[in-house]
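Exercise: predict the fold of this chain.
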Amino acid sequence: MKPNTNRGSRRAFLKDLGVGLSLSLTPIKPGSFSARAQEKTRVWDIHCHLSHMPGETPEERTAALLKYADRMGVERLVLSMGFPLHQNPTPEQVRFENDQVLAALRSWPSRTLGLVYLNPNDPDFSVQEFDRCVRDGPMVGIKLWVARHCNARDLDPIVQRAVSLNVPILQHTWLIVGGNKPGESTPFDLVELAGRHPQAAIICGHSGGDWERGVRVVRSTRNISIELAGSDPTNGFVEMAVRELGAERVIFGSDAGGRSFASQLAKVRAAQISEDAKDLILGGNLRRLLTPILTAKGRRL
């Protein structure tokens, strides 16, 4: 009988398979992102929220987010806005939502960063809240939503404060066929704002929703980057963004928990672009933008 020369290799394969299965089935405590995965992926997500997640407290909702982030290999979540969401919040509501994010940051300091949520309809309070949460607190940037069109002059003091500490601004933008919400900004509005503040690092949230138009609108404005959150993982989205803007101006965001990490990561993972470009999009560009403020706060990259 001829000896089976493949027996040893089969045993080795089954042994490796068993180890792999045991690792995949091992429960992962939320927030315990492994050093091996961190070294491999370094995915940083600029666009995460506490809304639409289970839990009564910011800590519980962040733990739920991290459970899914760990599953998908997302190293760091940038949180903004609390719950319930307010589209045109009062100063009290702004402070309450930011306090919820601050509570999450205290519970998960190695896994989370925060953007201060501001309402440009109250620019004086917005500057005070920026100082409380960013200058004197742990947050590392600004989130603006739909309270006021971002080309309004009332945003100028807010942007000037961001420039003074070299922190980015993430502005929600959308292009809706039937018309935007009152106060909801478009990429056109963002280009106007960025033109007044060429030193500001501005991020076009959702790439304007209609990304084919949004990418083209911001293309010539060099201090605007786009982020990928919120839309379906449509073929060609990321390829077009890299082709038109360069990979250095494209930033990964998921909009979790309104969207899944998996669907948003798929846009980049499956894109027909170089691995170097993917590394920049998935975390390298965001780390570059946040390096000045994180260094000033003594935080690790």
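Check your answer against the key: Residues 31-296 form a domain with the TIM Barrel fold (CATH 3.20.20.140).
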